Amino acid sequence: MSTRMVFMGLRLPAILAAAVCVAGCSLVSLKTPERPLSNRDLNARILTREFSYHFIAAVGQCADDMGAGETDPEVLTRALRWKIAAATESQRAASRISPMMSLLDTWALTAQMRAFLSPGQAGGELFGSHQETAVALAGELDKEAQALARRLTASNEFDEYQRFVDAYVRDQPLASLEFVRPSVVERWSAAHGGGARLVDSMGTIPEAMTDVSDRLKMSSDALALQTLWRTQLALREAGYSGDDIRAALRQLDERLATASQAAEHAPQLLHETIGELRRSVLDVLERVDSSSARMIEALRTEREALAADVRVERQAVVAAADEMLLLVTVLALVLLGLPFAAGYALGRARRG
Q: Residues with Cβ < 8 Å from 77, sequence gap 6 or more?
């Protein structure tokens, strides 16, 4: 029998023994090594994730409004890329383990996006006549993120966060709609020394499990939107707009009708029509296959990142549970052994 199996077998008796000892002695209390999140950290986690939902919805709606009355294919493609990149980065920032780092990363993202879309910057002319609308939205979201940070931090801490965000935006501006961003957590850690504490507590086991559940929900919600948007982008990049797809379907309907008529009158004409129909279908399938391959690759990358996050969280929770059970076992052994040791020592003293 392995050591691990022996340890597993001793867990339940040890816990029961500890419970009996505690029940018989009101002076003894057992405390687990868990430490719950502070009210500020818990509020930061909840409010930052709520802001992320708002951020993604606002950018998505703005991009959709652009597409409603726009005919320029470049602007339509850029609007799709904008909401895909913004949603991806917002979800990633809001789902960090450290609540305050999530808040800081989210604020830095909004500040970067505002600067990126401002006139004279790399993204200052992306959306044509809709540029002012995008700039106004980015400025509003940045103000909201800043206000959220002010609510959750002390004045001196807020000033420190603001200096960091200003320096980060200045030194690491967004260069394109890919939204490539260096890690805010790494930058913060480097600025405050490698030994800086990034998180005060992982929280209790229920809090950790709730965090994992919330992050999975965020990822699943984002996955649905990302799938739709990336499909639209892939089709557009393959040369198909919404009008093109509708036109292609109408053309297929017309050719099917022609084939039906040809079958009644001329077999040779039928063969020619079937050949044209086959070429049309193959052309559509070829473009869709190419688009699907790119979309599947993007989704695979997102899934691998999510799986890695879940694996890390699960290991942390299991480690915390093992630590707690080990502590309870040791305390139980000590509590059970003390009376015997005391009796043995007292007996020897009396005999002596």
A: 233, 236, 237
